[in-house]
Amino acid sequence: MTHGFPRPKQPWQLSRRRFVQGLAAGGVLAATPSWLQAAAKGATALDSAPVLSGREIDLVIAETPVNFTGVTRMATTINGSIPAPTLRLREGDDVTIRVTNRLPVATSIHWHGILLPYQMDGVPGISYPGISPGETFVYRFTLRQSGTYWYHSHSGFQEMTGMYGALIIEPRAGERHRADQDYVVQLSDWTDEDPMRAFSKLKVQSDVYNFNQPTFFDFTADVSKLGLQAALEKRQMWNQMRMNPTDLADLSAATLTFLMNGTTPAGNWSGLFQRGDRVRLRFINAASNSFYDVRIPGLKLTVIQADGQDVEPVTVDEFRFGPGETYDVMVEPQDDAYTIFAQSMERSGYARGTLAVQQGLIAPVPEPDPPEWLTMKDMMGAMGGGAMGHDMMKMDSMGQTKMDHSQMSGGMAMDHSMHGMQQGSENPLAKPSSTIRHARTEYGASVDQRVDTPSTNLDDPGIGLRNLSQRGLRPQGHRVQRGLRPQGHRVLTLADLKSIDGVLDDRRPPAREIGAKMDRPFGKPVHHCRAHLITRRQLNLMALPIIKADGFDIIITVQGPGKAGRTVLPA
Ligand SMILES: [Cu+2]
Fold it and tell me: Ligand 1: distance of its center to the CA of 198 in Å?
């Protein structure tokens, strides 16, 4: 548990447990048993996880002791490793994957984002009952796509305790981008606690792991900046909504150790390159709860693929991704060593690794940024923009005793034909939609939220990532080639992602309503719902979103214990 990096005493850090960097040699403890040696035959250790390829794969799920932080705990592993073996398969191949369960409980493997017959999807309760103790389930499917994906358990908290691995499908026609080095960079998070215990604590008190709570220090700072009245109103507003402006994650470094390729920050996973190499990094967020903000100080990241789909290459300095998402980036390192830095969104700690010309070299490791408070815009959509123009103080001075958007939407209803007008603009997806007219059924006791000026927010980098250069949190950046204007630190947004095959432009009128159970409903646009977060999934917060197509709008109904709400988003 070394803390090799000096940490300045900043006020926001005083109330927190120190961020655990973990053991340098942390990870799986067990000696390889014989059944595993058979399963791992033919594996080559290019990554920290063994690599398996071909058309026939054997996976064995078992409990394995691990030690990431100084205490020995039981993990759920596939072929005895964390992450699970990287599967390198080939587009067009028929693959047979035999999964044997050596756990005392049922298990499952879900192939995230893979097109396959529903019987092979691996979600218990939907297409099969799961894999019983002692049983071997044979997955057989044809690979109809290529790209960077991953696989994980869909049973209980097994994913959280180690059951996740990379799934790389090589395109039949060869990769679109030539790379001299090709690394999986799989981010995850580990807790020494029994996840069920952590989950029970969250059910009792949802912010039990939030060590960035508004403090008396924050209050006095706000008083001197905003004045006493405004500082009081700011707090009153959040209290009335029964929400918390620092609610960015269920879990934090208070219980988590952040891992890169199954390696603690102190362990420092390293990928090697030679000067002049084009290096492809396949980032996978396999965390149970952590959104990561990823950057490699000194290197531009050229994003070439998102969630397995090739995109028009876009060069940025940083990107955010949530659990379940993948991004492939190309980098061209010129120096000897660079830090791959992935701080968690709530800023309680980071995963970290190194790209270097030889093993053992390191580069400076940044400090996590100070946490930033959520605003009303983050919570409710584009309320701060355009027509409404509310800020947090004004909202309170409207004299509302609770958030009641029916008052705010008065007179602002607009016909859906207005949406058509935006179709002609350059990038309709990046533009906020207009005010929504809500159906009568969207009012009443069962609905606690309506967004009246919805926005896709696709061009918003998100809380904690806005105006980083101006705020002095990142370098001012280089001059762009074409113009002479200095370009600040650029964070990837969804508006930057363009399909390599052109924009999908289907203007057929909607014909029916769809009710769907979705693994990952909208990716980042429904940021607040966070569908792949395991504790939220267990809480049923995103168990059954109902999608209703209505012109250009989509209605998502979210149900959970004690809290039901609807959010209307533009399609
Ligand atoms: Cu998944």
Answer: 21
91-105, 229-243, 340-354, 462-476: least confident range: 229-243
Q: Which of 189, 147, 130, 133 is nearest to 164 (CA)?
A: 189
Q: How does strand 181-191 pair with strand 256-260?
A: antiparallel
CA 481 to ligand 1 centroid distance, Å: 39
Is 0.90 topped by the overall pTM? no
Phi first, then psi: give them for residue 446, nearest 5 degrees.
-85, -5
How far apart, in whole angstroms, are the C-alpha atoms of residue 154 and residue 163? Answer: 9
Domains of the chain, by residue range, sit at: 11-177, 403-571
CATH number assigned to the domain with residue range 11-177, chosen from the 4 options 2.60.40.420, 1.10.357.160, 1.10.3210.10, 3.40.50.300: 2.60.40.420
CA atoms within 13 A on the CB side of 563: 14
| pLDDT grade for 244, boundaries at 50, 70 and 90 | low
Q: For residue 237, report the phi and psi dihedrals to the nearest 5 degrees.
A: -60, -50
- Which neighbouring-strand residues pair with 23? none
Closest CA to 538 of 242, 157, 170: 157
294 phi/psi in degrees, rounded to 5:
-110, 135
For the segment 471-487, what is each residue's pLDDT rounded down to a tens digit?
889 987 654 455 555 56
Cα 532 to middle of ligand 1, angstroms: 7
Round the average pLDDT of the chain to a whole number and report it: 73
CA of residue 159 to ligand 1 center, whole Å:
10
- Report helix, strand or coil for 309: strand
Q: 109 CA distance to ligand 1 centroid (A)?
A: 10
